[in-house]
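sry for the spam today, last one i promise. struct tokens for design, 319 residues
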């Protein structure tokens, strides 16, 4: 087995809120698991030949387990449904070692954590770390209702409970999160972290950018996306060999490269995780991802072949 892959057993499964279950994963022999940091996620290989990414929501100081939480999404492409219907206590799963595309900015003076729905999972880990290190932060958690909000009892019992504010759509409008006011009042030394449904994240990030927040103060991780990978045909050229690969309208770049015998690692397939990121040496990509920031996309020096396409007839790739 690949050294980056682990076999784990589900030692505990627990309902955390309406439609949300947590899964505690451990080494079958009780050995310590590879370390991780706040914001890390793992790839979980789910029955049905599916792979999905889930954030780790337990403290990084715990080496004996990984804890993830999964929303049984009505719009599921099959992954969350399989986790809820097939994976039980005692099940064995293959997972990746932890990766972190959503780390805390260690040089920041203050931190503002905004979670929407299931996006609370990486924020739990971040809040634990910041509290343990005595670093200033505030956390805001938005959910449709209390019954849909996972881990609110854990947050209420936490030593940092006074730094957490919950907002529920079905309660008094006065307690709902005013994104504009919150971000306008934040100081220039605050770094923002946001995770949750795309609509929530778009609202937060668009507001921050409109208020003049620098891009390097914005940190985010999307859980899922509805990405349009269709478009006209074009070519990609491999810089190392000069080989040209045609990308037809009905294929992604990653798929066309695989058919040509060129394997690019792909994980999410939606331009969320950055696993497949490739340098672009010539040409103009048509960015469809949610991983790169607007500034990074504007440089056109890298793109995600799992979903992005080309505006120019040819892209020369550093492959």
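last one done:
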């Amino acid at each position: 087995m690949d050294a980056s892959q682990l076999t784990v057993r589900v030692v505990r499964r627990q309902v955390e809120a309406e439609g949300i279950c947590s899964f505690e994963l451990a080494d079958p022999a009780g050995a310590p698991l590879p370390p991780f940091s706040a914001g890390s996620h793992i790839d979980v290989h789910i029955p049905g030949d599916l792979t999905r990414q889930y954030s780790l929501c337990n403290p990084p100081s715990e080496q004996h387990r990984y804890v993830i939480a999964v929303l049984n999404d009505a719009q599921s492409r099959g992954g969350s449904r399989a986790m809820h219907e097939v994976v039980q206590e005692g099940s064995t799963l293959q997972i990746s070692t932890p990766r972190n595309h959503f780390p805390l900015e260690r040089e920041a003076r203050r931190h503002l954590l905004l979670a929407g729905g299931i996006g609370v999972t990486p924020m739990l880990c971040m809040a634990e770390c910041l509290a343990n290190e005595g670093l200033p932060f505030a956390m805001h958690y938005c959910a449709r209702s209390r019954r849909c909000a996972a881990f609110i009892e854990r947050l209420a019992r936490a030593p940092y409970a006074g730094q957490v504010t919950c907002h529920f759509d079905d309660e008094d409008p006065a307690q709902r999160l005013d994104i504009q006011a919150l971000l306008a009042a934040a100081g220039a030394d605050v770094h923002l972290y946001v995770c949750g449904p795309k609509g929530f994240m778009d609202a937060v990030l668009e507001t921050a950018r409109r208020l003049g927040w620098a891009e390097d103060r914005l940190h985010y991780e999307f859980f899922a996306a509805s990405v349009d990978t269709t478009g006209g045909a074009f070519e990609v050229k491999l810089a190392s060999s000069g080989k040209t690969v045609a990308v037809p309208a009905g294929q992604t770049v990653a798929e066309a490269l695989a058919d040509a015998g060129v394997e690019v690692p792909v994980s999410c397939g939606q331009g969320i995780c950055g696993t497949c990121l490739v340098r672009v040496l010539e040409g103009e990509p048509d960015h469809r991802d949610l991983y790169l920031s607007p500034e990074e996309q504007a440089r056109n020096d890298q793109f995600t072949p799992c979903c992005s396409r080309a505006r120019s007839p040819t892209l020369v790739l550093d492959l």
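The helical segments are 79-85, 120-132, 152-157, 179-185, 198-210, 253-259, 294-299. ok im logging off now
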